[in-house]
């Protein structure tokens, strides 16, 4: 519900803290609606986790490497100016992924074609596996239809939302909030490699498939129904396009503007506080009628709202399980790799050991560690814009990793420990070689980025990629709401509802823009008022 519908008069000065995709998308919507919008970004450039690294003619996306459900951004651009297709070049990625399983089996997964997907599974994994995945996808589609409008595209108000919005018992049965993603997979998928494939999609939300809810079945469904897409020149160009659209709509974007505090004042009413602007690290105050935080929710409630106003948010975060982080190698390689796909995923033999290592659970309870035999994800777009010439390649390599938590072994590891980053980088390259992608003698140079680096660059606490994970049946309701307990303060982006990932962040921006509502001009001054 917007302030207008609550009987308040929304004013037009809006400060957006953070220029990640969520902050940029909400800035576009609010500026287009007529608000006076200022975006404050502590980094030298917009984009947040959707970053770019360039050196010696090589270019790398340093965050997401594919776009799913592009309709979220197509709608945004169409509603505010030139369509998305005019400002970025979207390319279908086909095959979407090459998977190599622990037993050496290789599956090239076609893009956005259920019939071809089933046929490819039958050919690579054995007759009947395609039918298993098709049956699972039909269940995932039913979950998508039951959840998209009420949950992903609307504000969430605790577990009662589930009961209010599930219009019939069949909806609750389809969503199966009491069942984990892995448990749902076991019901449909008899081939263990298909279950491994499904488990990977829990990591799209920084989660453990053994604890993440069955509703995450919608992630592979959306990817395989609506396609995997790449932005020519790198996905960071989507952030560039959003920043440009925000400027065209009248917003101001200030980089190098490090917000140190959200300013809050006491007001009468049930909430008791109202946001009225922010203070920058240099002491500058920026007054506002609405503050939208695109900062990591933990950073917001622990550091930007350190006093009593942030206590409720801190209490809720303590109940949630933080998301995993990522360990990244940027590899500038000599030569070309025969039959290289855009995306390659190299699975281990023991996926559970990886999850136990990263989250400090199971056999590694109480002590997180870098997984010695991790899943390795390689993004290697065949894009001339990302390499100095045709005789080399630029690879982004990612493995799941525990968060950066020095002195807290149950919650993460100290990624600043001497020698750890380079030693683990060597281990990742060795694992790749063991699984058929040996590039060790082709590395011209490499850049290593740990969860500690991610924390420093984006202010995401511990380097959590998605803020909170989806671990647990109540996880969706523990994720910070878009409307905070403080009047005039809203949350947007991957650490808030409905979650992380490029499409969900775009949905988050639309939710927040609707909550803020349009600016309303103050009533004209009356003649008798002017005489007082």
Automatic annotation (TrEMBL):
Q: What Gene3D superfamilies does the record point to?
A: FAD/NAD(P)-binding domain (3.50.50.60)
Record has Oxidoreductase as a keyword: yes
Sorted alphabetically, which Pfam families does this protein's record hold?
Amino_oxidase
What are the Amine oxidase domain coordinates in residue numbering? 21-319
UniProt keyword annotations, A-Z: Carotenoid biosynthesis, Oxidoreductase
The cross-references to InterPro entries, in alphabetical order and at most eight, read: Amino_oxidase, Carotenoid/retinoid_OxRdtase, FAD/NAD-bd_sf
This protein is called what?
Phytoene desaturase family protein
Q: Which organism is it from?
A: Aquipuribacter nitratireducens
What is the organism lineage in this UniProt record? Bacteria, Bacillati, Actinomycetota, Actinomycetes, Micrococcales
